[in-house]
Input
Amino acid sequence: MSHIGPAPLDAIIVGAGQAGLAVGYHLARLGVPFVIVDAADRVGDQWRQRWDSLRLFTPGAYNNLPGLRFPAPARSLPSKDAVADYLAGYARRFELPVRTGVRVERLWREADRYVMACGEERLEAANVVVATGACRTPRTPAFASELDPEIGQLHSSAYRNPSQLRDGPVLVVGAGNSGAELALEAARHGHQTWLSGRDVGQEAPYRPDSLPERLITPLAWFLFSRVFTTRTPVGRALRRKFQRRGTPRVRIFPKDLTGAGVQWVPRTTGVQHGLPALEDGRALAVSNVLWCTGFGPGLEWITLPVLDEHGFPVHERGVVGDQPGLYFIGQFFLHTLTSPLIGGVGRDARYVAEQLARRASHVNARV
Output
């Protein structure tokens, strides 16, 4: 294995998405030597690889990373490709040191430094920021493997557009934002479609870009980013609720689904004779199953005692107390409801960068 370069680094950021780039922006201004590594071939690929029709749920005015406005009309809902291009442009604009095509396979600690195995490379730094986000490992139920092989199966992470679907009915499992969007798309492309899962509720009773939305969004954003935090009772209660039930739908209403012919059915709980079986005992004869069942944290490569029983990091606003120099960013409700969002991650990034820079200055002063 080789080191990443001739000069020692104070920090390595793992992940060149919005969270990692925002931390890099602040570290650069604080004068901390760092590098950002990412497994993808290009900055923004994690967005380019999502389904074709995906658009953000937040208007353009609320999608700014620190130091650079998102190049879109304030009320527009940018496409996923626009987000990818923005992230790539952000890295170029601020000349952030990003190395793509570097996959971190293992992270551990030796004395006072963190070490990463990346293929034949060995990367070392006194501080590591894990900015891989909360949606890493596609999650499907164990019984998925028991379905008839003639039934096409796709997780939402692999879905791009309706051309991937086989002729015939579609079952979408998971009734959150992704499930509702893909069910509506399948139905509009002529598939008999069922949407399976509990109703996670509606975030707001108004349409995007409507007058009520324009009036309420500024207040809602303030509450989501400043009041609903891990330091307030209402914020902690909201975090527990969303962890238990999932986040509410944003722009797809039940009448949109029923109007397109989507049938809402109970949870999918198993397999009967090769067909997906519902909680009410029915088995559905379908040609396709779209799994919109979420993601696991995908942090198994971290061989340090920093994960809880569900595989999520244990931290205080991104700082791991018993592993000095290790930080997390971009996680669900890291500090506020907006923590994983493009327009909300900057505040967390600044806090993490300041904590890291303070530690780096103390460590360097002792050397």
About this structure: The chain has two domains: 11-136+297-366, 139-203+247-291. The two ends are 25 Å apart (CA to CA).
